[in-house]
C-alpha cells in the first residue's frame, strides 16, 4: 500500500473547475465520521461518544433549528486522532513523490482563484450533519473555506497514501489525490479539484443514493470558479473483518436493488466503511440487464452490474491478503471463515430487498423462484 503521487493521469480539460466541499464522507451509516466535526468547545472530538449518533444529530436538527451554528468561527474540526495514531510524512509540500513508511502527508489545498460561486449545497448535510445553519453559505467566508482558501479551525489537511488492485491487477503506487482530509473527510488529490461535470454528477448521485437509503459518501457543497485546472477523479480511506464483510455484502445488494452500477470497483474505490464512494462512470440501469456496463470502455464487462457481487468478494479477498501479515494464524483462519459467509449474506439481503420491492409478505419457499423468474422475464 504505497502511493501519493499527485496526478498519474492528469490531463488538461474543462475551463470550469469545481471544488467539492465534502466535509462529511459518511454520515448516513457511521457515527465516527459525523463526529469528527466538533464544535469549538469539544476540542478533542472523541469519535465514539455514543450520545451523538447521526440520528441524534438529525433529530436535534428536526426538533430545534436554533441550535444550528450561524457563525463559521464556531465550527472546527479535529485531526488529533488521526495524527496521533499514524506517523506523518516527514516531507512537506504538494508534489508528486513516493511516500514511505507513513499513511498521511500534510497537504495544504490549493485555493481556487477568481470569482467563486456556490453552485450547490446539500441542506441535509449542512444542517443535519454539520450542524451549520444554511445562512452560513451566504458568507464569503464559507466560499473560502469550501474552496481551499481558508482552513477550518483545528484542521490539518492530510493527503492519504493508497494503492490498490485495478481491473484485477495490483497497480502499485496510485494517487491522483484529489482528496484532502480536513478533519476526517476525504477528497483525494494534490489540489482537491475536479471538473464540474463529474462533480455535479457525484454531488447529485450521492444525494440520491442517500435518500434511496444506500450508504454513501456525501458532499456539503460545490464551489465553482472559472480558473482552468488540471483534471482528475475522486476518493476516500481498526478493521473488523466481520463488519466489513457483512456491510459490503449489504451495500452491494442495495446497489442491485436500485439498479446502480458503480462502474470501476477497483479495490481503492471501495471504502472500509462500506459506503458508496468514488462516483466515476457510474450508471443506473434503464431496464433490467445483468450485463449493463456503465463505463463504455470496459469492453470485457469486468464491472458490469451483474458482476458486482463477485467483485465485492474479490476486493474483500484482496483486503484480507493485505491484512494477513498483521494477523495471527488463528485470526487468518477466522477471517477466511467470515469471508465464506459473504455470499450467503449477500443473497439474503438481496432476497429481502427484492421481496420488499414486490411487496411479498411472509416467507414462502417459492419467493426466490418468483424473484429470479421476474428478473429473467424482464430482460
Ligand atoms: C431551542 O434551543 C434554544 C437554544 O438552545 C432554546 O432557547 C429554545 O427554548 C429551544 N426551543 C425548543 C422548542 O426546544
Ligand atoms: C450487517 O450490515 C447491515 C447493514 O449495514 C446491518 O444492518 C446489520 O446489522 C449487520 N449485521 C451484522 C450481523 O453485523
Ligand atoms: C477507481 O480506481 C482507479 C484506480 O484504481 C482510478 O484510476 C479511478 O479513477 C477510480 N475512480 C473512478 C471513479 O473511476
Ligand atoms: C473504463 O474501463 C477501461 C477498460 O477497462 C479502463 O481502462 C478505464 O480506466 C475505465 N474508466 C474509468 C473512468 O475508470
From TrEMBL:
User: Transferase: present as a keyword of the record?
Assistant: yes
Which UniProt keywords are listed? ATP-binding, Magnesium, Metal-binding, Nucleotide-binding, Nucleotidyltransferase, Signal, Transferase
KW Transferase (keyword) present: yes
Leader sequence residues: 1-34
What are the GO MF terms of this UniProt record? ATP binding; metal ion binding; nucleotidyltransferase activity
- Give the required cofactors: Mg(2+)
Pfam families per record: SelO
Q: What family is it from? A: Belongs to the SELO family.
Q: Which PANTHER family match?
A: SELENOPROTEIN O (PTHR12153)
Q: What is this protein called?
A: Selenoprotein O
